[in-house]
Here is the input.
Amino acid sequence: MLNSKPLLLNSDFPALQRTQLETLQVNLGYTCNQTCKHCHVNAGPNRTEQMSLETINDLLTFIRQHDIQKLDLTGGAPELNPHFRYLVREARKLNVHVIDRCNLTILSEDNQQGLAEFLAEHKVEVVASLPCYTQENVDEQRGKGVFDKSISGLQQLNTLGYAKPETELILNLMYNPTGAFLPPPQDMLEANYKEKLRHDFGIEFSHLFTLTNMPIMRFGSSLMSSGEFEPYMQLLKTAHSDDNLQTVMCRSLISIDWQGYIFDCDFNQMLDIPSRLDDITKRHIADLNINELERSNILVADHCYGCTAGGGSSCGGALS
Here is the structure.
């Protein structure tokens, strides 16, 4: 696989500083039951990296000590970490809002019985990957049969009360482009998704988030192989908006890798660009003083233009 990191480091992206920490985004491991073309994690069935129970308990200690209100769980497929349900239970006991970034097909895996019911019982917000509402586009990007399993997963979640007005169960969908182009306007796309999924499958969801494909890892390698890397970077830079700098997710979030080390965002984590605090190359969550974070500098590179291009992009969708 070609490495796009050297092409990204010499950057003119504007300087950024953190504000107040609101969210811990935790990568529980790189194991996944899918191998998607756009994946910035390079996750898949053959990846074995998984967060240990000891590190998970370090996270829970940090959450208790600093009253963290939001825990955003990602992967790979985060549910494949053997301690996933333990972490969710303990975090919910602390009244933490838990988000599970779910690929939907995991709900039908043989070793995941009762997963959907577990998520509903603990009122976990589900952010579900669905890059299109057509079978052809989803299967082309994520693998044959993924669309049908995704629809089945969404219907299962709806049956349990997700996205129903009378419940507190939030079901958001995540869209990312199927190629080297920017997402369309989020509001317009959400309306199209809701109409199509309701008409064809009786599916309801809360909101749609749009996410720009990052020119790193598997997608970055694909761009380099096809000769599209430079044109795609030019697209991102031309579409950059300074207005989006105020609300990029890295200003109020830190990303924790499967070993417990701190990064400014999930994308920096995948590029192995760790947060720099007091000149320490890598800081573990067990050794982090939260006071060090506020107003500290965020490490940026050219991939950051993916978050500020067009309407902006974050794990919570468009920024403007």
User: Anything to note?
Assistant: The mean pLDDT is 92. Residues 56 and 87 are 7 Å apart (CA to CA). Residues 186-201 form the longest helix (16 residues). The longest strand covers residues 97-102.
